[in-house]
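User: Look at the shape:
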Amino acid sequence: MMNAKLSAITGSVLLLSAPLQGFSATTHPDSCINRDWKKEIPLPVHPNREMVDLYHKTWEIAAGRVRKGPEGLPASPYMDENCYEDQIWIWDTCFMVLFAKYAPRSFPGVESLDNLYKPVHEKAVTPLKVHLVDNPPLFAWVEKEYFDFTGDKNRLDDLLNKKQYLQKHFNWFAQAKSGERFACSPQNIHLNSIGDDGFTWTGGASGMDNTPRGRDAGGYRNVLWVDAISQQALSARCIADMEQALGNADEAKKWNIEYEALKDKINHLYWDKKEGFYYDVTISDKQPCRVKTIASYWPLLAQVASREQAQSMVRHLMNPEEFGGSYPTPSLARSDKDYHHQTGDYWRGGIWLPTTYMTIKAIEKYGYHEEADAIAEKVISQQLAAYRNIEPHTIWECYSPSGNAPSTEHGRRVRPEFCGWSALGPISLFIENVLGFKEVSAARKEVRWRLKKNKGRHGIKNLRFGGIATDIVFDGKGTVSVRSNASYSLIINDSNYSVKKGDTEIQL
């Protein structure tokens, strides 16, 4: 029987009266997690004990996904998404980087990307096949996020100057033709470049398996997919930023030009003035294909939207008849005729942590922090309630848009122990949106904290970025206590404070 307090999911924080039930993560024979990994992860401070417990249990599940892999793997150990034993996925791996960065010595996020780069762009022989080479091209985005957090210029130099993996993948994606085959993948390419206007794709290749996109235009191959071209724009922007960080001004300028061209194309072809929403468009006459999905928030992450366009997109996002309500960010708008109310039926309304994370980060680009934080707390609260009340007590592949339960795929319950990208909720969104540590930059030696004074005592300990290790805790009254092994800037609600090595007390 569900705890009465669990029904109050609409609140900003879910409180439970009983501790979480015990959990023991499944250990795969190939598991090889660093035995000291618990000493590396950040330690959250928050009055909701159950959310903190879920945070730690999520890391435990993720630890079970650090694998040696079969002999001959380009990079071992690596992060396994917990789907197929003989295959790895581009977009699963990319999203795992975004929580693995918080403990990079134990959780090999970016190292796992080498199992994709080398087979695809160097034709390296690999025992793990790449499932769908034309998965979303997110490499540049997650590499930039990793660089910002760690300040690892050596990896950046290797990626951009020596191997040029990011440029190669962008250029390949831009010219991809359906039917192309890679030796490292069991599938033919579904992606098809249609000149400068964009790309046709499929549900599986885009990652949104059973999405009804293209429904009113006769199918997937009759529309240009807004997420594909927006992810290319995001890649170009991130490559430009990383080239600038390396001091390659001419290369940065070249990629900014590429970005601006894609930005103009997206706003010219994919923006529907009538509804104030980004849509896929038909190839034949470039008209909107009005199937409203969460994929339409990729343009905001790429920062191609104007302030007015972003405002309109956020209205749709917060509308309970579309993407808002008690269970926000369903993959298909509730107003769509194919929306599956009960479970979400995978990509027909299911709530997925990767697209939820993307959407939250997208609206933050335009200053919608309150809305982003509210969505994050609701989604984590749903994960917590599902963990608490559904057996096995675990983290699921995706969730129902109408209750505290996992979604379904082809009528069966989705995959458990999915850490995997679903760790983005209890780990990344908890750190970034519930605790409020919005930006952590080793390159700038800066932490940006959106402190919420009404939340009581909260903060983080053992936060490591670059060579810095720090504790930052608000006492719930008016003092922030900081301990650090090096100096950095702590920006609290837009006020800049200088943190010195040792102990620092900040009176707010």
